[in-house]
Amino acid sequence: MPTTSSPDARQGLRRELVVLKGAVRSRLAAAVVLFLAVLLGAGPAAAYWAASGKGSTTAAVATLLPPTNVSVPASSGSSVAVSWTGSAGAVAPTGYYVTRTSGTTTSAACGSSPSALITGTTCSDIPVPDGTYSYQVTAVYRSWTAASTGSGSVTVSSLVKLAFTAQPAASVTAGSAISTLTVQLQTEGGVPVLSGGVPVTIGIGTNPGGGALGGTLTATTNPSGAATFNGLSIDTAGAGYTLAASSAGYAGTASTSFSVVPAAASQLVVTAGSSLAGTASSAALLGPATLQRQDAYGNAVTSGTTTISLASSSASGFFSNTANGTKTTSVAIAAGSASASFFYGDTTAGTATITAAATGLSSPTPVTATITAAAAGKLKFDTVPTSVPRNVNITPPVTVRILDAFGNATASTAAVTVQSTCVLKTTSVLTASAVSGAATFADLQFVRKSTGCTLTATSGTLASDTSNAFNVE
After folding, report:
1. What pLDDT, on the 0 to 100 scale, is given for residue 130?
2. Taking Cα atoms as reference points, which of 29, 62, 35 lies closest to residue 46?
3. Full DSSP string of 297-321
4. Domains of the chain, first to last
């Protein structure tokens, strides 16, 4: 039989075709948006999803953007200056690494790598072999990377180079002048180039101590093509320093390695334990505090022996070379060492100032020691008036203080009980809890005239105390 369809069936088919057509259009629109975003290098990415049912939604996704404007000179000696504009956008990179490409060969540049990032937006790539190169900079944030487009080309030529003809001494003293240095313009084969007026700059190449180079760092060549440097100095000790000479259009060079040794000791510095704190004690337990002898540039000095005298502003303060060791008033820095340590003890609560002194060396900033009371150990009466009236509260009230073993006031709240050799009124309160280490008895009264009376205070295991003698009138 031939197939027939009713008008209602034809209308249902039309509705299904309209829905299908809308879905196709939605997916086609999403594909076009994605294609244009990739083609035009859009900023932070946006995604579009068609959802079942009615409606749609968008979501912003943070994006690590690549650096831009990677720039190099058109030509250079073996030191190539590279600069770029940092990544824009919401995600800030941790840093960047740089690569250079010649033909099909790509190499790490500027001493950087994915694990050795540059945090700025410039670097110097040295030394670079002769050739033509382009540079690329990659931004890194955690596991994300975003690479720039390549730079323009730079042609590197080292037909003329720099060479040290007078090298630094094998060992120089921190802050003192390095021996006269000479840098010569040469051909690649080492023949001097007789060219005057060429500026040559010296910097630190390898810097094991993190030192700073002082002096006049740029000199111009004389008619023989030689630049001379006098009075250069490095302030921080270290082994394996080198100096680097550079000049625009010339292949740079590095000096032989050398060591920078400390200058003469000129000061004492507290390098540990500048602030001590603890409880009162008969043993030197606080510390260690460490003193180091240094030169004027902060380098530790190990030569010679230095005796350091110690003093405290507290008359009861004392020192030892080791924790709980024998008491002493000095410590010594031995030859081959730069430091010595001490421990401090004090039986008096409060803040003590500790000073150190050594012949020929400036003294360090004083060490402070904050001493607090030890554990409660004994009771102590305030003075009782030598004559008190009968049937009247003793004035001022009798006070018993809770002290540590060294007589320092404590904050104890222990209960204290008093008794007397003379007859007290039966309504007198004989036990009171201490407040901030003091128990006060405000209503002690005696009922009859007596002479040579005393009060005795007790509190658990604390050492008891007996007041001074007094008369009841």
Report:
1. 82
2. 62
3. TS-B--SS-EEEEEEESSTTEEEES
4. 9-61 (no CATH), 68-156 (2.60.40.10), 160-261 (2.60.40.10), 267-372 (2.60.40.10), 376-472 (2.60.40.10)
Dist. CA 342–CA 367, nearest whole Å? 11
Please give the pLDDT value at position 249.
Answer: 83
From the list 466, 349, 472, 471, the residue with the least C-alpha distance to 400 is: 466
Contact 260, 175 (CB under 8 A): no
Task: Answer left, alpha or beta for residue 336, where phi above 0 means left and psi between -120 and 50 means alpha.
Answer: left
pLDDT along the chain (473 residues), means of 10: 39 39 44 40 44 52 92 86 95 97 96 96 91 96 96 84 96 96 91 94 96 97 97 97 94 96 97 98 97 98 97 98 96 97 98 98 98 98 97 96 98 97 94 98 95 98 98 96
Measured from the Cβ of residue 326, the count of other Cβ atoms closer than 10 Å reads: 9
Write out the two tokens for 195: 């060219």
Please report where in the chains the tokens 């590279």 appear, as a residue: 82
Token code pair at residue 401: 């203080």
The neighbouring-strand residues paired with 85 are 68
- Residue 428, SS3? coil
Kindly report the pTM of this predicted structure: 0.62
Instruction: Dump the DSSP string for 27-66.
Output: HHHHHHHHHHHHHHT-SSEEEEEE-SSS-EEEEEE---PP
Residue 417 makes CB contacts below 8 A (sequence gap 6+) with 430, 431, 457, 458, 459
**Which pLDDT belongs to residue 62?**
80
Q: The tokens 């010594």 sit on which residue?
A: 332
| Sequence-distant (≥ 6) Cβ neighbours of residue 34 within 8 angstroms | none
Bridge partners of 226, per DSSP, are 184
Q: What is the DSSP string of 239-264?
A: EEE-EEEEETTEEEEE---EEEE---
pLDDT score at 443: 93
Q: Looking at residue 23, what is its pLDDT?
A: 42
Q: What are phi and psi of 345, to 5 degrees?
A: -140, 155
* C-alpha to C-alpha distance for 253 and 256, rounded to whole angstroms: 10
Q: Are 355 and 440 in contact (CB under 8 A)?
A: no
Per DSSP, which regions of 427-469 are E strands?
Answer: 431-433, 438-441, 450-453, 455-459, 462-466
Q: Please report the pLDDT score of residue 58 as a whole number.
A: 53
pLDDT of 159: 64
Residue 156, CB-side half-sphere exposure with 13 Å CA sphere: 23
